[in-house]
Amino acid sequence: MATEPAAADPTPTLHRDTQLAMYRRALQHLPGGTDSNFRAWGESTIYVDRGKGALVWDIDGNEYVDLRMGYGPAILGHADDRVDDYVNERMRKGVSFSLTSEDEVRTIELICELTGWVEQARMTVSGTEATMHAMRVARAYTGRDKIVKFEGQYHGVHDYALISVGPDDVSELGDPDAPVALTWGRGIPSAVADTIIPARYNRIENLRRLFEQRGEEIAAVIVEPVLGNAQGIMPQAGFHEAMRALTSEFGVLLIFDEVKTGFRLARGGAAEFFGITPDLATFAKALERSNSDERMRYFARVLPPPQRTAAFLEQEYRRIRYFPLLNLINTGHVSSPFYLLTEPAVNSH
Ligand SMILES: Cc1ncc(COP(=O)(O)O)c(C=O)c1O
Asked: Does the structural domain 81-330 have CATH classification 3.40.640.10?
């Protein structure tokens, strides 16, 4: 007699008591009970205890398969021993010297080797600072003030990046040819906001018209080569190639924000994947190794000679953390998987 299949496991009950108490406690001193709006989920806010591999556990002991992996970077899974052993050993030697280490030099060498096009790079504390510096370098190099930024793209939380990230209402977006510059939140000076020209992604003809009208003012275009902050939106075929040609034609620098695509989309990041050599690139969490929250952020840049200048700082203890992952990728122990889990949607808007 055939046996009945076991009944499917019902949705497991989440235990929330400890987290709810933590949430109420945290609310006293942390706005929203957390350090980031992206993790502020009211009474459902998760307070993590630990992670290993693909799993994380919260402080109530609930176990999860982690599909966000630190927003993408933790390709080795959490608490990878190969990385952590190295980091722990280096930590014990002391890390905060205000001096340079070989880890730092080797890491930049690896960035150059893996991308194949980066000539020089410096490190910052966060992806936010990386994109901020890249924009500044572009302005300094070209002597122009404006940066073109695509609607819906996220480049961190400095004032220049928080323009046209997400509208409250799509009716606010304005004309595709001249989208409205929408500041995200209050407190961004209009003088700063005015230096950012929003443009519609995947509309190369709009970009050409913009360059024809205002190209003399534009220092750079910054782009997430694949939108990692909106599910995973691929560019339309030929968009990056056309943008590369257009920016070169108008003397505008092209900044690839590879904070999420770097060392993921391909070994050499989106630049390799699309066969494009940008003028500057920013890398950050994708250079991260395996642990959940201690994300490393970097900035790498290249400018055409002779202006090879740029100087960015990073917190010292962090520099030891990215070397191990890059090294694993470089030695073929880790490949660079296409990290987007969902079928990439094509943005036709
Ligand atoms: C494409 C992109 N650029 C910049 C940033 C900002 O990086 P950070 O959070 O390290 O400041 C992010 C963060 O998710 C990002 O996805």
From this structure: yes
